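Apologies for my clumsy wording, but are you able to produce some protein sequence, whichever is easiest, and the tokens describing how it folds?
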Amino acid sequence: MGARSDLDRYAFPCLLSVTFLTAIGNTGLISVMPAIGRVIGITDTLVASIFSLSALIWAIASPGWARVADRRGRKPLIQLGLLGFIGSMIGCGLIVYGGLLGLMAPLVTFIVFFVVRSSYGLFGSASATAVQAYIADRTEGLARVRALSGQAGALSLGTIFGPAIAPFLILPPFALATPMFVFSLAGCLALVMTVWMIPRETMPVRDVQLDAKPVPAGKLWRDPQVAPFFKYGIVLASAQAMNLYTLGFVVIDRLGGQPIAAQKAVGTAMVGGALAGLFAQWGLVNWLRLGPWAMVRWGAGLAFIGNAVMMLGSGYPSLLIGFSLACLGYGLGRPGFSAGASLAAGPGRQAGVAGVVSSIAGASIVGPPILSVLLYESWAPAPFVLACAGLFAVTLYSLVNPALRNRGTMFPEGDNASTNRALCVDPPGS
């Protein structure tokens, strides 16, 4: 299989920018929500559940958007998702500001925020699905692995800037609500970029028959060549969600200070994790010419070790080191399973695969963050114990499942023996 890439010289940077700017808003919001909840008077468990309805809608809507993308094209859905992002950020900012002023009771603030945030789950999933499908349509082999890793790297880069700048955006007159208004402006910038930089198109460029029926998500989940990547992905993404959404509370409690005072430490930890993920996606994948199988097995293994460090430690330094190491693993595993599923599927199923991958991202945020915080309130190491169990299981799964080891996902370009050693994988047939 070759490494063909037909990505437009302007479109691909634009797609990376869309991913980057929306990641800034989402991750920045995650980093300030623990402080918002404790200042307004919302319990930690309710704060953790704020994103669950949006994530559930995201998981349900993504496969549907994949079918729409096959009929309407990728660009309109990317823009629709950005409009959902902008609207939800403005609405959430207004709600938080009203709660801070005491215009609404804490429980009312939570309910209204909960509902308004769900609009991003409905429309934001369209953008994420269309971006991955756009890239998969126009790349093959190792070029697709690198492009999807580049997209994941843009996501990681956004998670660096989001939590890093969010504490500095807590400014008058809107205080803790200010970051949301700023992030909505970033969404507007991304929307303008898509108008000018993504070529107009109504159908994917690959030679897919126009009368072919889109592949249902359920059928993809039953496909023995593709489904193993999805099963791996849902466990890995759930472990990452547990880490990410619990982090703010763990930092506040380990430092023993006030919620707002701990925001810079939360940002530092998230920046460290995002840098580790970025190093994996924009560094290791290219330098070592990693194939999806190497990425999934090393990704889960490193994430397991990182969670073990966080579980066994009791101070902030161990939390920082463990979270960064876990994110290094997630940075390999997540683009690894998405690229592997894409390579294992045929050209006519790329939007369907993108929809399922996007759905997995949403599903991982529905229950795991709430469960993680509930466990944390009962026993602090519990979330890390649960994550370790899941990551250990998928590490073993990645070693023994034959679908994850097929030649097309081990060596997308048919690399030679020296590259096999660089990939740290066994030659085919061993």
Summary: Confidence is low (pLDDT under 50) at residues 202-212, 414-430. The radius of gyration is 21 Å. The CA atoms of residues 38 and 292 lie 41 Å apart. Residues 106-137 form the longest helix (32 residues).
